[in-house]
Amino acid sequence: MTEVLFSRPKALLDVPTHYCPGCHHGIIHRLVAEVIDELGIQEKTIGVAPVGCAVLAYDYFNCDMLEAAHGRAPAVATGVKRVHPDAAVFTYQGDGDLAAIGCAEIVHAAARSEKIVTIFVNNAIYGMTGGQMAPTTLVGQVTSTSPYGRKEEVAGMPIRVSEMLATLDGPAFIARVAVNNPANMNKAKAAIKKAFELQLSGQGFCLVEILSTCPTNWGKTPVEAVKWLEEKMVPHYPLGVYKDVQEVGK
Amino acid sequence: MSEKVLMKGNEAIAEAAVAAGCRHYFGYPITPQTEIPEYMSKRMPQVGGVFLQAESEISAINMVYGAAGAGARVMTSSSSPGISLKQEGISYIAGAELPCLIVNIMRGGPGLGGIQPAQGDYFQATKGGGHGDYHNIVLAPNSVQEMVDFTMQGFDLADKYRNPVMLLGDGVLGQMMEPVEIKESSSTPIEKPWAAAGKRGRAKPNIINSLFLKANELENHNLHLQKKYALIQENEMRWEEICTEDAELIVVAYGITARIAQSAIDKAREEGKKVGLLRPISLWPFPQPPFARLAKTAKAFLTVELSAGQMIEDVRLAIRDTKPVHFYGRTGGMIMTPIEIYQEITKILTGKEGK
User: Fold this and answer.
1) Fewest CB within 10 A of the end CB: N or C in chain B?
2) Minimum-distance CB partner of B70 among A46, A58, A67
Protein backbone atom coordinates (compact mmCIF):
# COMPACT_ATOMS: atom_id res chain seq x y z
CA MET A 1 0.00 0.00 0.00
CA THR A 2 1.34 3.40 -0.90
CA GLU A 3 0.34 6.77 0.43
CA VAL A 4 1.11 10.13 -1.17
CA LEU A 5 2.92 12.23 1.42
CA PHE A 6 4.25 15.01 -0.78
CA SER A 7 2.93 16.31 -4.07
CA ARG A 8 2.66 19.46 -6.13
CA PRO A 9 0.05 21.89 -4.79
CA LYS A 10 -2.97 22.21 -7.07
CA ALA A 11 -2.42 25.97 -7.22
CA LEU A 12 0.94 25.43 -8.95
CA LEU A 13 1.00 24.38 -12.59
CA ASP A 14 3.07 21.33 -13.51
CA VAL A 15 5.75 23.22 -15.41
CA PRO A 16 9.46 23.86 -14.84
CA THR A 17 10.28 27.39 -13.64
CA HIS A 18 13.03 29.66 -14.95
CA TYR A 19 14.44 30.37 -11.49
CA CYS A 20 18.17 29.87 -10.85
CA PRO A 21 19.48 27.02 -8.67
CA GLY A 22 19.41 28.03 -5.02
CA CYS A 23 16.97 30.91 -5.54
CA HIS A 24 14.15 30.99 -3.00
CA HIS A 25 11.37 32.03 -5.41
CA GLY A 26 10.51 28.36 -6.00
CA ILE A 27 10.03 27.71 -2.28
CA ILE A 28 7.99 30.88 -1.86
CA HIS A 29 5.77 30.04 -4.87
CA ARG A 30 5.14 26.67 -3.31
CA LEU A 31 4.23 28.10 0.10
CA VAL A 32 1.76 30.53 -1.46
CA ALA A 33 0.24 27.69 -3.51
CA GLU A 34 -0.02 25.41 -0.46
CA VAL A 35 -1.88 28.15 1.42
CA ILE A 36 -4.27 28.65 -1.52
CA ASP A 37 -4.91 24.89 -1.54
CA GLU A 38 -5.40 24.62 2.21
CA LEU A 39 -7.84 27.53 2.27
CA GLY A 40 -9.70 26.07 -0.75
CA ILE A 41 -9.67 29.41 -2.56
CA GLN A 42 -8.02 28.55 -5.88
CA GLU A 43 -11.19 29.25 -7.86
CA LYS A 44 -11.53 32.77 -6.50
CA THR A 45 -7.86 33.71 -6.30
CA ILE A 46 -6.53 36.42 -8.63
CA GLY A 47 -2.81 37.12 -8.61
CA VAL A 48 -0.83 40.09 -9.88
CA ALA A 49 2.70 39.45 -11.13
CA PRO A 50 5.46 42.09 -11.01
CA VAL A 51 8.30 43.10 -13.28
CA GLY A 52 11.47 41.40 -12.10
CA CYS A 53 12.45 37.78 -11.61
CA ALA A 54 8.85 36.78 -10.83
CA VAL A 55 7.56 38.41 -14.02
CA LEU A 56 6.55 34.99 -15.32
CA ALA A 57 4.70 33.98 -12.13
CA TYR A 58 1.54 33.89 -14.24
CA ASP A 59 3.00 30.84 -15.98
CA TYR A 60 3.43 29.02 -12.67
CA PHE A 61 0.37 29.73 -10.52
CA ASN A 62 -2.79 27.87 -11.43
CA CYS A 63 -5.15 30.79 -10.92
CA ASP A 64 -6.22 33.88 -12.87
CA MET A 65 -3.35 36.35 -13.09
CA LEU A 66 -2.56 39.84 -14.37
CA GLU A 67 0.90 40.98 -15.32
CA ALA A 68 1.46 44.51 -14.00
CA ALA A 69 3.84 47.26 -15.08
CA HIS A 70 6.98 47.71 -12.93
CA GLY A 71 5.96 48.63 -9.40
CA ARG A 72 2.27 49.03 -10.19
CA ALA A 73 1.01 45.69 -8.88
CA PRO A 74 -0.68 47.18 -5.78
CA ALA A 75 -2.62 49.63 -7.99
CA VAL A 76 -3.60 46.84 -10.40
CA ALA A 77 -4.64 44.65 -7.46
CA THR A 78 -6.69 47.54 -6.10
CA GLY A 79 -8.61 47.71 -9.38
CA VAL A 80 -9.17 43.95 -9.34
CA LYS A 81 -10.27 43.81 -5.71
CA ARG A 82 -12.70 46.73 -6.11
CA VAL A 83 -14.38 44.81 -8.94
CA HIS A 84 -14.37 41.43 -7.15
CA PRO A 85 -14.52 42.09 -3.40
CA ASP A 86 -15.10 38.37 -2.76
CA ALA A 87 -11.90 37.32 -4.52
CA ALA A 88 -8.59 36.52 -2.84
CA VAL A 89 -6.25 39.00 -4.51
CA PHE A 90 -2.49 38.93 -4.06
CA THR A 91 0.51 40.70 -5.52
CA TYR A 92 3.88 39.00 -5.76
CA GLN A 93 6.68 41.57 -5.91
CA GLY A 94 10.43 41.87 -5.58
CA ASP A 95 12.39 44.59 -3.82
CA GLY A 96 13.22 46.64 -6.91
CA ASP A 97 9.59 46.54 -8.00
CA LEU A 98 8.07 47.28 -4.60
CA ALA A 99 10.68 49.33 -2.72
CA ALA A 100 11.96 51.53 -5.57
CA ILE A 101 9.72 52.24 -8.55
CA GLY A 102 6.56 51.06 -6.81
CA CYS A 103 7.03 52.83 -3.50
CA ALA A 104 4.05 55.14 -3.96
CA GLU A 105 1.75 52.31 -4.97
CA ILE A 106 2.60 50.05 -2.01
CA VAL A 107 2.46 52.87 0.55
CA HIS A 108 -0.96 54.03 -0.58
CA ALA A 109 -2.41 50.52 -0.97
CA ALA A 110 -1.29 49.93 2.61
CA ALA A 111 -2.62 53.31 3.77
CA ARG A 112 -6.02 52.61 2.18
CA SER A 113 -5.87 49.16 3.76
CA GLU A 114 -6.75 47.57 0.44
CA LYS A 115 -7.97 44.08 1.22
CA ILE A 116 -5.14 42.38 -0.65
CA VAL A 117 -2.09 40.32 0.26
CA THR A 118 1.36 41.37 -0.89
CA ILE A 119 4.09 38.75 -1.02
CA PHE A 120 7.26 40.84 -0.94
CA VAL A 121 10.41 38.95 -1.87
CA ASN A 122 13.50 40.82 -0.65
CA ASN A 123 16.82 39.56 -1.98
CA ALA A 124 18.68 42.88 -1.69
CA ILE A 125 19.36 43.13 -5.42
CA TYR A 126 17.79 43.50 -8.88
CA GLY A 127 17.82 39.94 -10.18
CA MET A 128 16.18 39.99 -13.61
CA THR A 129 18.32 42.80 -15.00
CA GLY A 130 21.51 41.13 -13.77
CA GLY A 131 22.36 42.24 -10.26
CA GLN A 132 22.07 45.99 -9.87
CA MET A 133 21.80 47.88 -6.57
CA ALA A 134 18.31 47.89 -5.05
CA PRO A 135 16.91 50.15 -2.31
CA THR A 136 17.37 47.09 -0.09
CA THR A 137 21.01 46.46 -1.02
CA LEU A 138 23.14 46.41 2.13
CA VAL A 139 25.84 49.00 2.78
CA GLY A 140 29.09 47.65 1.39
CA GLN A 141 27.32 45.12 -0.84
CA VAL A 142 28.89 44.88 -4.27
CA THR A 143 26.49 44.95 -7.21
CA SER A 144 26.89 45.78 -10.89
CA THR A 145 25.89 49.42 -10.17
CA SER A 146 27.70 49.63 -6.82
CA PRO A 147 30.98 48.03 -7.92
CA TYR A 148 32.85 49.51 -4.92
CA GLY A 149 30.11 48.44 -2.52
CA ARG A 150 27.02 50.46 -1.61
CA LYS A 151 28.12 53.68 0.04
CA GLU A 152 25.79 55.35 2.51
CA GLU A 153 26.92 58.86 1.49
CA VAL A 154 26.02 58.15 -2.14
CA ALA A 155 23.01 55.84 -2.00
CA GLY A 156 21.72 56.20 1.54
CA MET A 157 20.76 53.34 3.79
CA PRO A 158 18.73 50.29 2.74
CA ILE A 159 14.98 50.64 3.23
CA ARG A 160 13.25 48.45 5.79
CA VAL A 161 9.87 48.13 4.11
CA SER A 162 8.05 46.17 6.82
CA GLU A 163 9.03 48.62 9.56
CA MET A 164 8.15 51.59 7.32
CA LEU A 165 4.69 50.30 6.38
CA ALA A 166 3.99 49.23 9.97
CA THR A 167 3.98 52.92 10.96
CA LEU A 168 0.76 53.34 8.94
CA ASP A 169 -2.66 52.82 10.48
CA GLY A 170 -3.90 50.91 7.42
CA PRO A 171 -2.21 47.52 7.41
CA ALA A 172 -3.80 44.58 9.24
CA PHE A 173 -0.75 42.35 9.21
CA ILE A 174 2.91 42.85 8.38
CA ALA A 175 5.59 40.25 9.01
CA ARG A 176 9.12 39.55 7.87
CA VAL A 177 10.04 35.92 7.43
CA ALA A 178 12.70 33.83 5.71
CA VAL A 179 12.80 30.43 4.07
CA ASN A 180 16.42 29.59 4.87
CA ASN A 181 15.58 26.48 6.94
CA PRO A 182 12.57 24.19 7.51
CA ALA A 183 11.58 25.89 10.77
CA ASN A 184 11.53 29.30 9.10
CA MET A 185 9.66 27.87 6.11
CA ASN A 186 6.91 26.75 8.47
CA LYS A 187 6.81 30.22 10.04
CA ALA A 188 6.74 31.81 6.59
CA LYS A 189 3.86 29.63 5.52
CA ALA A 190 1.96 30.41 8.72
CA ALA A 191 2.42 34.13 8.05
CA ILE A 192 1.25 33.79 4.44
CA LYS A 193 -1.76 31.80 5.58
CA LYS A 194 -2.65 34.35 8.21
CA ALA A 195 -2.36 37.13 5.64
CA PHE A 196 -4.79 35.38 3.28
CA GLU A 197 -7.18 34.62 6.13
CA LEU A 198 -7.19 38.24 7.26
CA GLN A 199 -7.86 39.36 3.70
CA LEU A 200 -10.75 36.96 3.35
CA SER A 201 -12.28 38.12 6.63
CA GLY A 202 -12.00 41.69 5.38
CA GLN A 203 -9.43 42.87 7.92
CA GLY A 204 -7.36 44.86 5.43
CA PHE A 205 -3.96 45.11 3.83
CA CYS A 206 -1.47 42.34 4.63
CA LEU A 207 2.18 42.12 3.61
CA VAL A 208 4.60 39.27 4.14
CA GLU A 209 8.20 40.21 3.45
CA ILE A 210 10.28 37.15 2.69
CA LEU A 211 14.08 37.37 2.75
CA SER A 212 15.41 35.46 -0.21
CA THR A 213 18.71 34.48 -1.75
CA CYS A 214 20.05 35.39 -5.17
CA PRO A 215 23.09 33.13 -5.57
CA THR A 216 23.57 34.07 -9.22
CA ASN A 217 23.82 37.82 -8.71
CA TRP A 218 25.41 37.60 -5.28
CA GLY A 219 28.16 35.47 -6.88
CA LYS A 220 27.76 32.71 -4.34
CA THR A 221 26.87 29.04 -4.22
CA PRO A 222 23.38 28.26 -2.92
CA VAL A 223 24.86 27.15 0.42
CA GLU A 224 27.04 30.26 0.72
CA ALA A 225 24.03 32.39 -0.19
CA VAL A 226 21.94 30.99 2.66
CA LYS A 227 24.83 31.69 5.03
CA TRP A 228 25.14 35.28 3.72
CA LEU A 229 21.39 35.80 4.17
CA GLU A 230 21.66 34.62 7.79
CA GLU A 231 24.81 36.57 8.64
CA LYS A 232 24.29 39.79 6.69
CA MET A 233 20.63 40.24 5.81
CA VAL A 234 18.87 39.08 8.96
CA PRO A 235 20.77 41.51 11.26
CA HIS A 236 19.64 44.46 9.10
CA TYR A 237 16.22 42.98 8.38
CA PRO A 238 15.12 41.34 11.66
CA LEU A 239 12.51 38.61 11.31
CA GLY A 240 9.25 39.05 13.15
CA VAL A 241 5.71 40.39 13.15
CA TYR A 242 5.57 44.17 12.76
CA LYS A 243 1.82 44.67 12.70
CA ASP A 244 -1.00 42.36 13.67
CA VAL A 245 -4.51 43.67 13.93
CA GLN A 246 -5.45 40.62 16.04
CA GLU A 247 -2.86 41.50 18.67
CA VAL A 248 -4.08 45.07 19.08
CA GLY A 249 -6.03 45.49 22.29
CA LYS A 250 -5.15 42.05 23.60
CA MET B 1 -33.32 61.41 -17.43
CA SER B 2 -34.94 62.09 -20.78
CA GLU B 3 -35.58 65.84 -20.68
CA LYS B 4 -32.94 68.42 -21.41
CA VAL B 5 -30.95 69.71 -18.47
CA LEU B 6 -28.26 72.36 -18.26
CA MET B 7 -24.95 70.70 -17.47
CA LYS B 8 -21.26 71.48 -17.43
CA GLY B 9 -19.30 69.36 -19.93
CA ASN B 10 -17.25 67.57 -17.29
CA GLU B 11 -20.28 66.70 -15.21
CA ALA B 12 -22.18 65.56 -18.29
CA ILE B 13 -19.37 63.10 -19.11
CA ALA B 14 -19.57 61.68 -15.59
CA GLU B 15 -23.36 61.32 -15.64
CA ALA B 16 -23.24 59.76 -19.11
CA ALA B 17 -20.71 57.22 -17.87
CA VAL B 18 -23.00 56.27 -15.01
CA ALA B 19 -25.91 55.97 -17.47
CA ALA B 20 -23.73 53.71 -19.63
CA GLY B 21 -23.25 51.33 -16.74
CA CYS B 22 -19.77 52.41 -15.67
CA ARG B 23 -19.46 51.57 -11.96
CA HIS B 24 -15.72 51.99 -11.49
CA TYR B 25 -13.91 55.32 -11.66
CA PHE B 26 -10.27 55.89 -10.72
CA GLY B 27 -8.77 59.36 -11.02
CA TYR B 28 -6.69 62.19 -9.65
CA PRO B 29 -7.52 65.90 -9.48
CA ILE B 30 -6.17 68.20 -12.18
CA THR B 31 -7.61 71.37 -13.71
CA PRO B 32 -9.66 71.71 -15.92
CA GLN B 33 -11.26 68.25 -15.49
CA THR B 34 -11.62 68.04 -11.71
CA GLU B 35 -15.42 68.24 -11.88
CA ILE B 36 -15.37 64.67 -13.24
CA PRO B 37 -13.82 63.05 -10.12
CA GLU B 38 -15.83 65.41 -7.91
CA TYR B 39 -19.07 64.39 -9.60
CA MET B 40 -18.11 60.71 -9.49
CA SER B 41 -17.26 60.89 -5.78
CA LYS B 42 -20.84 61.99 -5.17
CA ARG B 43 -22.56 59.82 -7.76
CA MET B 44 -20.84 56.43 -7.56
CA PRO B 45 -21.90 55.67 -3.96
CA GLN B 46 -25.50 56.43 -4.99
CA VAL B 47 -25.44 53.70 -7.64
CA GLY B 48 -23.39 51.13 -5.77
CA GLY B 49 -20.27 51.96 -7.75
CA VAL B 50 -16.66 52.58 -6.84
CA PHE B 51 -15.02 56.00 -6.81
CA LEU B 52 -11.40 55.94 -5.82
CA GLN B 53 -9.08 58.94 -5.71
CA ALA B 54 -5.68 57.47 -6.52
CA GLU B 55 -2.32 58.68 -5.24
CA SER B 56 -1.26 59.61 -8.77
CA GLU B 57 -2.37 59.43 -12.37
CA ILE B 58 0.02 56.49 -12.75
CA SER B 59 -1.79 54.58 -10.04
CA ALA B 60 -5.20 55.60 -11.38
CA ILE B 61 -4.51 54.18 -14.85
CA ASN B 62 -3.09 51.00 -13.32
CA MET B 63 -6.23 50.63 -11.22
CA VAL B 64 -8.11 50.95 -14.51
CA TYR B 65 -5.86 48.21 -15.92
CA GLY B 66 -6.75 45.97 -12.98
CA ALA B 67 -10.48 46.70 -13.07
CA ALA B 68 -10.70 46.33 -16.86
CA GLY B 69 -8.66 43.13 -16.68
CA ALA B 70 -11.07 41.86 -14.05
CA GLY B 71 -13.98 42.50 -16.44
CA ALA B 72 -15.47 45.82 -15.30
CA ARG B 73 -16.69 48.77 -17.37
CA VAL B 74 -14.21 51.34 -16.09
CA MET B 75 -12.91 54.84 -16.77
CA THR B 76 -10.45 57.48 -15.74
CA SER B 77 -10.08 61.15 -16.63
CA SER B 78 -7.37 63.75 -16.52
CA SER B 79 -5.89 66.73 -18.32
CA SER B 80 -2.75 67.00 -20.42
CA PRO B 81 0.10 66.67 -17.84
CA GLY B 82 -1.84 63.94 -16.09
CA ILE B 83 -2.46 62.13 -19.36
CA SER B 84 1.30 62.14 -19.96
CA LEU B 85 1.69 60.32 -16.64
CA LYS B 86 -0.90 57.77 -17.71
CA GLN B 87 0.89 56.87 -20.94
CA GLU B 88 2.77 53.92 -19.45
CA GLY B 89 -0.49 52.37 -18.33
CA ILE B 90 -2.27 53.16 -21.60
CA SER B 91 0.44 51.31 -23.52
CA TYR B 92 -0.02 48.28 -21.23
CA ILE B 93 -3.80 48.50 -21.61
CA ALA B 94 -3.46 48.59 -25.40
CA GLY B 95 -0.94 45.74 -25.31
CA ALA B 96 -3.11 43.58 -23.08
CA GLU B 97 -6.20 44.59 -25.12
CA LEU B 98 -8.32 45.88 -22.27
CA PRO B 99 -11.43 48.01 -22.80
CA CYS B 100 -11.68 51.30 -20.95
CA LEU B 101 -12.55 54.97 -21.40
CA ILE B 102 -9.91 57.64 -20.86
CA VAL B 103 -11.01 61.28 -20.87
CA ASN B 104 -8.48 64.02 -21.66
CA ILE B 105 -9.74 67.57 -21.11
CA MET B 106 -6.79 69.27 -22.75
CA ARG B 107 -4.97 72.32 -21.41
CA GLY B 108 -1.96 74.23 -22.69
CA GLY B 109 1.53 72.73 -22.62
CA PRO B 110 4.30 71.70 -22.83
CA GLY B 111 5.39 70.90 -19.29
CA LEU B 112 3.13 72.25 -16.61
CA GLY B 113 1.87 74.66 -19.28
CA GLY B 114 -1.26 76.40 -18.14
CA ILE B 115 -4.81 75.59 -17.23
CA GLN B 116 -6.50 77.24 -20.22
CA PRO B 117 -7.95 75.23 -23.13
CA ALA B 118 -5.70 73.84 -25.86
CA GLN B 119 -5.46 71.06 -28.43
CA GLY B 120 -1.75 70.36 -28.15
CA ASP B 121 -2.18 66.68 -27.26
CA TYR B 122 -3.36 65.62 -30.74
CA PHE B 123 -0.13 63.82 -31.58
CA GLN B 124 -0.05 62.10 -28.19
CA ALA B 125 -3.67 60.98 -28.46
CA THR B 126 -3.73 59.81 -32.07
CA LYS B 127 -0.25 58.38 -32.61
CA GLY B 128 -0.20 56.14 -29.58
CA GLY B 129 1.28 58.29 -26.83
CA GLY B 130 3.11 55.59 -24.94
CA HIS B 131 5.73 53.15 -26.20
CA GLY B 132 5.13 50.56 -28.90
CA ASP B 133 2.92 50.24 -31.97
CA TYR B 134 -0.61 50.87 -30.83
CA HIS B 135 -3.58 53.17 -31.27
CA ASN B 136 -6.32 54.46 -29.05
CA ILE B 137 -9.70 55.06 -30.62
CA VAL B 138 -9.98 58.84 -30.24
CA LEU B 139 -13.33 60.65 -30.29
CA ALA B 140 -13.49 64.46 -30.34
CA PRO B 141 -16.82 65.98 -29.26
CA ASN B 142 -17.67 69.60 -30.06
CA SER B 143 -20.59 70.09 -27.68
CA VAL B 144 -21.71 68.98 -24.26
CA GLN B 145 -24.30 66.75 -25.91
CA GLU B 146 -21.59 65.02 -27.92
CA MET B 147 -19.56 64.58 -24.74
CA VAL B 148 -22.53 62.63 -23.41
CA ASP B 149 -23.11 60.63 -26.59
CA PHE B 150 -19.45 59.81 -27.22
CA THR B 151 -18.91 58.77 -23.61
CA MET B 152 -21.65 56.17 -24.01
CA GLN B 153 -20.46 55.09 -27.46
CA GLY B 154 -16.88 55.06 -26.21
CA PHE B 155 -17.58 52.32 -23.68
CA ASP B 156 -19.25 50.21 -26.38
CA LEU B 157 -16.38 50.72 -28.83
CA ALA B 158 -13.89 49.81 -26.11
CA ASP B 159 -15.75 46.57 -25.35
CA LYS B 160 -16.28 45.75 -29.02
CA TYR B 161 -12.62 46.01 -29.95
CA ARG B 162 -11.03 45.37 -26.52
CA ASN B 163 -9.20 48.65 -26.96
CA PRO B 164 -8.74 51.86 -24.96
CA VAL B 165 -10.96 54.70 -26.14
CA MET B 166 -9.94 58.29 -25.52
CA LEU B 167 -12.49 61.07 -25.32
CA LEU B 168 -10.49 64.12 -26.36
CA GLY B 169 -12.02 67.36 -25.15
CA ASP B 170 -10.56 70.65 -24.03
CA GLY B 171 -10.93 73.16 -21.24
CA VAL B 172 -13.74 75.02 -23.01
CA LEU B 173 -15.88 71.93 -23.53
CA GLY B 174 -15.16 70.69 -20.02
CA GLN B 175 -16.13 73.94 -18.36
CA MET B 176 -18.98 75.24 -20.51
CA MET B 177 -22.64 74.60 -19.82
CA GLU B 178 -25.15 73.54 -22.46
CA PRO B 179 -28.52 71.85 -22.40
CA VAL B 180 -28.12 68.11 -22.76
CA GLU B 181 -30.24 65.03 -22.86
CA ILE B 182 -28.88 61.96 -21.14
CA LYS B 183 -30.85 59.11 -22.58
CA GLU B 184 -31.01 55.62 -21.21
CA SER B 185 -27.99 53.86 -22.62
CA SER B 186 -28.89 51.35 -25.28
CA SER B 187 -25.67 49.49 -24.70
CA THR B 188 -25.80 46.10 -23.09
CA PRO B 189 -22.85 44.87 -21.09
CA ILE B 190 -21.12 42.14 -23.04
CA GLU B 191 -19.72 38.89 -21.73
CA LYS B 192 -16.00 39.00 -21.03
CA PRO B 193 -14.96 35.37 -20.84
CA TRP B 194 -11.30 36.44 -21.08
CA ALA B 195 -11.34 38.48 -17.84
CA ALA B 196 -9.22 37.59 -14.82
CA ALA B 197 -12.16 37.26 -12.46
CA GLY B 198 -11.09 34.07 -10.69
CA LYS B 199 -11.30 30.69 -12.42
CA ARG B 200 -14.61 29.84 -10.71
CA GLY B 201 -14.86 26.46 -12.41
CA ARG B 202 -13.07 27.40 -15.64
CA ALA B 203 -10.50 24.79 -16.71
CA LYS B 204 -7.60 27.12 -17.49
CA PRO B 205 -6.47 30.35 -15.83
CA ASN B 206 -7.12 33.63 -17.63
CA ILE B 207 -3.98 35.73 -17.96
CA ILE B 208 -3.97 39.48 -18.62
CA ASN B 209 -0.60 40.27 -20.09
CA SER B 210 1.40 42.25 -22.64
CA LEU B 211 4.70 40.39 -22.23
CA PHE B 212 5.93 38.18 -25.08
CA LEU B 213 9.58 37.35 -24.54
CA LYS B 214 9.92 35.39 -27.76
CA ALA B 215 10.38 37.80 -30.67
CA ASN B 216 8.22 35.78 -33.07
CA GLU B 217 5.38 35.67 -30.53
CA LEU B 218 5.60 39.42 -29.97
CA GLU B 219 5.55 40.01 -33.71
CA ASN B 220 2.49 37.79 -34.02
CA HIS B 221 0.81 39.77 -31.24
CA ASN B 222 1.64 42.99 -33.07
CA LEU B 223 0.27 41.60 -36.32
CA HIS B 224 -2.91 40.69 -34.47
CA LEU B 225 -3.17 44.25 -33.10
CA GLN B 226 -2.55 45.76 -36.53
CA LYS B 227 -5.30 43.60 -37.99
CA LYS B 228 -7.64 44.90 -35.32
CA TYR B 229 -6.60 48.50 -36.03
CA ALA B 230 -7.29 47.94 -39.74
CA LEU B 231 -10.76 46.69 -38.84
CA ILE B 232 -11.36 49.76 -36.66
CA GLN B 233 -10.24 52.00 -39.53
CA GLU B 234 -12.69 50.22 -41.81
CA ASN B 235 -15.64 50.51 -39.42
CA GLU B 236 -15.24 53.52 -37.19
CA MET B 237 -14.20 56.60 -39.18
CA ARG B 238 -16.50 59.46 -38.26
CA TRP B 239 -16.78 63.01 -39.50
CA GLU B 240 -19.21 65.84 -40.16
CA GLU B 241 -19.41 68.02 -43.26
CA ILE B 242 -21.13 71.38 -43.52
CA CYS B 243 -21.48 73.23 -46.85
CA THR B 244 -18.67 71.26 -48.48
CA GLU B 245 -20.38 70.34 -51.79
CA ASP B 246 -19.52 73.54 -53.65
CA ALA B 247 -16.77 74.76 -51.35
CA GLU B 248 -13.56 76.11 -52.83
CA LEU B 249 -11.99 76.27 -49.39
CA ILE B 250 -12.43 73.53 -46.81
CA VAL B 251 -11.85 74.51 -43.22
CA VAL B 252 -10.74 71.51 -41.16
CA ALA B 253 -11.21 71.72 -37.40
CA TYR B 254 -12.23 69.45 -34.53
CA GLY B 255 -13.69 69.94 -31.08
CA ILE B 256 -14.35 73.46 -29.83
CA THR B 257 -12.31 74.90 -32.71
CA ALA B 258 -14.90 73.53 -35.15
CA ARG B 259 -17.60 75.51 -33.31
CA ILE B 260 -15.56 78.71 -33.66
CA ALA B 261 -14.78 77.95 -37.31
CA GLN B 262 -18.49 77.38 -37.95
CA SER B 263 -19.24 81.00 -37.00
CA ALA B 264 -16.52 82.24 -39.35
CA ILE B 265 -17.85 80.05 -42.17
CA ASP B 266 -21.42 81.29 -41.60
CA LYS B 267 -20.22 84.88 -42.00
CA ALA B 268 -18.22 84.03 -45.12
CA ARG B 269 -21.17 82.21 -46.65
CA GLU B 270 -23.43 85.22 -46.02
CA GLU B 271 -21.02 87.12 -48.22
CA GLY B 272 -21.19 84.44 -50.90
CA LYS B 273 -17.79 82.98 -50.19
CA LYS B 274 -17.66 79.28 -51.00
CA VAL B 275 -16.32 77.86 -47.77
CA GLY B 276 -17.20 74.61 -46.02
CA LEU B 277 -16.35 72.79 -42.81
CA LEU B 278 -14.96 69.30 -42.52
CA ARG B 279 -14.92 68.20 -38.90
CA PRO B 280 -13.09 64.99 -38.04
CA ILE B 281 -14.96 63.33 -35.15
CA SER B 282 -12.84 60.21 -34.89
CA LEU B 283 -9.31 61.60 -34.75
CA TRP B 284 -8.07 58.03 -34.83
CA PRO B 285 -9.04 56.43 -37.08
CA PHE B 286 -8.60 59.68 -39.04
CA PRO B 287 -11.47 60.01 -41.53
CA GLN B 288 -9.70 59.69 -44.88
CA PRO B 289 -12.65 59.34 -47.33
CA PRO B 290 -14.03 62.90 -47.24
CA PHE B 291 -10.54 64.33 -47.70
CA ALA B 292 -9.86 62.18 -50.76
CA ARG B 293 -13.21 63.26 -52.23
CA LEU B 294 -12.97 66.97 -51.40
CA ALA B 295 -9.39 67.18 -52.63
CA LYS B 296 -10.90 66.74 -56.10
CA THR B 297 -13.42 69.60 -55.79
CA ALA B 298 -11.88 72.13 -53.42
CA LYS B 299 -9.04 74.47 -54.27
CA ALA B 300 -7.46 74.61 -50.84
CA PHE B 301 -7.74 73.53 -47.21
CA LEU B 302 -7.36 75.55 -44.01
CA THR B 303 -6.61 73.61 -40.84
CA VAL B 304 -7.46 75.43 -37.64
CA GLU B 305 -6.24 74.13 -34.30
CA LEU B 306 -5.54 75.29 -30.75
CA SER B 307 -1.95 74.18 -31.27
CA ALA B 308 1.05 75.04 -33.41
CA GLY B 309 -0.22 72.60 -36.04
CA GLN B 310 -0.58 68.88 -35.38
CA MET B 311 -3.69 67.57 -37.15
CA ILE B 312 -2.48 69.41 -40.26
CA GLU B 313 -0.03 66.55 -40.84
CA ASP B 314 -2.90 64.08 -41.12
CA VAL B 315 -4.80 66.47 -43.38
CA ARG B 316 -1.82 66.77 -45.75
CA LEU B 317 -1.41 63.01 -45.73
CA ALA B 318 -5.12 62.44 -46.35
CA ILE B 319 -5.07 64.60 -49.49
CA ARG B 320 -1.55 63.45 -50.43
CA ASP B 321 -0.57 67.15 -50.63
CA THR B 322 -2.55 67.51 -53.84
CA LYS B 323 -3.90 70.91 -52.72
CA PRO B 324 -2.41 73.67 -50.57
CA VAL B 325 -3.11 73.19 -46.86
CA HIS B 326 -3.02 76.44 -44.90
CA PHE B 327 -2.85 76.65 -41.14
CA TYR B 328 -4.13 78.95 -38.47
CA GLY B 329 -3.62 78.22 -34.80
CA ARG B 330 -3.39 79.75 -31.35
CA THR B 331 -1.51 78.15 -28.49
CA GLY B 332 -0.96 78.26 -24.77
CA GLY B 333 -4.61 78.71 -23.85
CA MET B 334 -5.27 81.61 -26.21
CA ILE B 335 -8.44 81.00 -28.21
CA MET B 336 -9.03 82.37 -31.69
CA THR B 337 -12.13 84.41 -32.42
CA PRO B 338 -14.43 83.71 -35.37
CA ILE B 339 -13.15 86.95 -36.92
CA GLU B 340 -9.56 85.70 -36.89
CA ILE B 341 -10.59 82.58 -38.79
CA TYR B 342 -12.80 84.66 -41.12
CA GLN B 343 -9.79 86.86 -41.91
CA GLU B 344 -7.70 83.79 -42.73
CA ILE B 345 -10.48 82.53 -44.99
CA THR B 346 -10.64 85.87 -46.77
CA LYS B 347 -6.88 86.07 -47.12
CA ILE B 348 -6.70 82.64 -48.75
CA LEU B 349 -9.65 83.26 -51.07
CA THR B 350 -8.41 86.71 -52.04
CA GLY B 351 -4.94 85.39 -52.69
CA LYS B 352 -6.43 82.91 -55.08
CA GLU B 353 -8.63 85.49 -56.75
CA GLY B 354 -5.61 87.72 -57.24
CA LYS B 355 -3.72 85.06 -59.17
Assistant:
1) C
2) A46
Domain B4-235: CATH superfamily is: Thiamin diphosphate (ThDP)-binding fold, Pyr/PP domains (3.40.50.970)
With beta carbons under 8 A apart, name residues in chain A contacting B56: 104
User: In terms of residues, how long is chain B?
Assistant: 355
User: What structural domains does chain A harbor?
Assistant: 25-244 (3.40.50.970)
- Beta bridge partners, A66, equal A48, B208
CB < 8 Å to B208, chain A? 65-67
Sorting pLDDT into bands at 50, 70 and 90, what band is B353? very low
B89 touches A at CB < 8 Å: yes
Q: Does the beta-carbon distance from B196 to A46 stay under 8 Å? A: yes
pLDDT tens per residue, range A158-172:
999 999 999 999 999
Say if the Cβ atoms of A76 and B56 lie within 8 Å: no
What residues of B are in contact with residue A107 (Cβ under 8 Å)?
55
